[in-house]
Each structure stands twice: as structure tokens, then as C-alpha cells.
Design goal:
Chains A, B: InterPro entries: ArsR-like_HTH, HTH_ArsR_DNA-bd_dom, Metal_resp_trans_reg, WH-like_DNA-bd_sf, WH_DNA-bd_sf. The structure is a homodimer of 102-residue chains. Chain A has 102 residues and is of the alpha+beta class. Chain A contains 5 helices and 3 strands; from the N terminus they run ααβααββα. The mean pLDDT of chain A is 96. The interface between A and B is large, with 39 and 38 residues.
DNA sequence: TCTGTATATGAACATATGCTCATATATGAA
DNA sequence: TTCATATATGAGCATATGTTCATATACAGA
């Protein structure tokens, strides 16, 4: 197959996709996203349930927020986070299903 | 929701999934896998088409081989690589479709 | 065997990543 | 306002990552 016959992805698409997969490529973020896929959670709740430091969770949530994969709202002194990208959750669940059936 | 009421992923599943997503989290590997999804290719062909060094391509293919995402066979002096994990290709294509329709 | 082409691989390097620690900010109660 | 709780964030650090460079290995043809 010659170079000009290949289908190519645009730079923008490649960048977009790699950022999405990067977000899913870390055990901590997988665990956080999997929790948020079940229900919205406060930062402390995530930290306690997953046995992580408050700071580590907050940093990761900030990262996920930048990519618009999660959103948050204030509730008193707490911040309640929830998923904001169903497609990424769908990719995650698909990967889980595949992994658990191998 | 209390800690014991959460659904948790096994350590093994989390590790497995993060490795899979890590493989898809780099622009070079995305481009290589996308090429191989179209047809099997030699190392040099990939390097030429994608304008990468032979060494960089070989290193990445070695990486993808370790994860069993690609396989290879010899053809004379050339090594012909092809995809060996349909599910990962499916995840990639799904991400592409999503990205291009946003 | 010698030569050329194709691929693999180890070392080194620059950058990215994920965490901790310390501290800043924000809200609610007293 | 003052204090306690919840969250955010910057700096620093150890490790991981992706590439280049040099070189090793493997096969085909003369």
C-alpha cells in the first residue's frame, strides 16, 4: 500500500484521542472514574474509599476536570464530583468487560 | 454510599486495563496501530509512511508486542507486523468516531 | 564469504507523570 | 470574628516515558 493510499487521522483527532486514553491510563484515575460512574462523590469520600490522600485525589480530579471528563458542584464545604463524559465511561466499561472475560 | 457498598475492580483488572489504555495513550502508537488496522506492514514501511525513525518504530512495535497487541512474521529480511487484539482496535476506532463527531 | 538491506536493542537524555508536603482558600457553626 | 472542616494548589522529588544514537543481528544476493 502506498503512502497516499493510507487513511490518516488528523493531528487534532490524534491529540484528542491520546489525551482521552492518557486519562484512562492510570490506575488511580481508573478507580476514581469507576467510583464516579456508580454515583457522584465528594473528594473526601473518594479519598477514604480508595485509601488515597486528599491531595492526590484533588490533583487527579483537577486533571479530569481540565479534560471535561468530570464536573463538580459545591455542597456546603464539600465539592461533589460526577462524570461528565458518557463516552469515556463507555470505553472504560468496555475495557473492563473485555479484561474480565479474558 | 458506604465503602462496602461500592463495586470495586480487582487489582488485576485495573492493572490490565491501565496497560491497555497506556498503549493507546501515545500519538505514535495510535498512528502505528491505525496503520496496522488497515493492513499488515513492515517496520520500514511504517517508518516511511509516518515519517518516524526506524529505531523509534521498532521500539514501539516491541512495546506493543510485549502487550500482545501486535504480532509479526518474517518475510525475507523484513518483519511484517499486524494487529493481534481486535478489542483494542475496536476501542481505538470507537474513540476516533467519538472524537470526530464532537 | 562478503556486501547490502532490514530490523532489534542497549545506553543516554530530556520531558512527563503522580505523589507528598506544606499551605492557601472557602464555607459553616459557634 | 474565630475555629473547624473540606478542598485546591504550588513546589519538589522519584520514577516513567519516548526518542535518538550507535551498534548488533539476520537474511538475501553476488
Amino acid at each position: 500500500m502506498k503512502t497516499q493510499d493510507h487513511a490518516f487521522l488528523s493531528e487534532e483527532t490524534i491529540e484528542d484521542i491520546s489525551l482521552m486514553f492518557k486519562a484512562l491510563a492510570d490506575p488511580t484515575r481508573i478507580r476514581i472514574l469507576y467510583m464516579l460512574a456508580q454515583e457522584e462523590c465528594s473528594v473526601n469520600h473518594i479519598a477514604e474509599v480508595l485509601d488515597l490522600s486528599q491531595s492526590a485525589v484533588s490533583h487527579q480530579l483537577s486533571y479530569l476536570r481540565t479534560l471535561r471528563l468530570v464536573k463538580h458542584r459545591r455542597s456546603g464545604t464539600a465539592m461533589i464530583y460526577s462524570c461528565d463524559d458518557n463516552h469515556v465511561i463507555s470505553l472504560l466499561k468496555q475495557a473492563i468487560t473485555h479484561s474480565e472475560h479474558t
